[in-house]
Amino acid sequence: MRALLVFWLAAAQAQPLDLRIPAVTGGTVISIREVGATPKDAPAMAGTQQVGVPSDIQQATPVGAVVYLPLGPQSDKNWRFGAAGTPEMQAQFAQSSHEIVVTMDDGERRVFRPREPARFRVGQRVSVRAGEVEPLPKEGV
After folding, report:
1. CA atoms of 87 and 93, how far apart (whole Å)
2. Which residues of the chain form beta strands (DSSP E)?
3. Which distant-in-sequence residues (6+ apart) come within 8 Å of 98 by Cβ?
4. Percentage of the chain modeled with pLDDT above 70
5. pLDDT at residue number 82
C-alpha cells in the first residue's frame, strides 16, 4: 500500500495539474444594431419660411447617410461612413454607432462596438483578440 502511495505521489509531481481556464476566443455574431445618443431638445430652425411653390432651380437639401469607398493606388480601401443634410442630422449621425452581440463558444454573450461594422453580418464566425472582434475567413476559401 505504501509503494502505491509513493508511486501516486511521484506521478502527481511529474504531471502538474493545470487549473487555468482556456481563453475562449471564437464566437458567432447573433445581432447587429445601430445605437446612438438620444437627441436633446431639437434646436429651432433658422431662417424664414418660404411662401409659394419652389421652382425647378431650388432643390431640397439632401439628407441621409453617406457611404464612401476610396479607390486608387494611395487609398487604404476602407469604407467611410458619414452624413449629408442639416447640421442637426450630421450631429445625430456622428453620435450613432453599431453594437454587435456575439455568442462565444462557451455560451457567454459579449457586446462589441467595432470601428468598421460593415465587415460583420449575422451568423458570421468571429474571433476576439485583445478585446477587439475580428471576422474569421470563410471556411473552404
Report:
1. 10
2. 26-35, 64-68, 80-84, 97-104, 109-112, 125-129, 132-135
3. 32, 33, 34, 35, 113, 114, 117
4. 62
5. 72
Q: What b/e sequence results for 64-92 when a residue is b if at least 16 CB atoms lie within 10 Å of its CB, and e otherwise? A: eeeeeeeeeeeeeeeeebebebeeeeeeb
Residue type, 118: A
Long-range pairs of 64-68 with CB within 8 A, sequence gap ≥ 24? 65/93, 67/118
Residue 26's Cβ-side half-sphere holds a number of Cα atoms within 13 Å equal to 6
- The C-alpha atoms of residue 27 and residue 100 are separated, in whole angstroms, by 12
The phi, psi pair for 33, rounded to 5°, reads -145, 155
- 45-103 pLDDT per residue, tens: 455 545 555 555 555 666 677 787 888 887 777 777 776 776 776 666 666 788 999 99
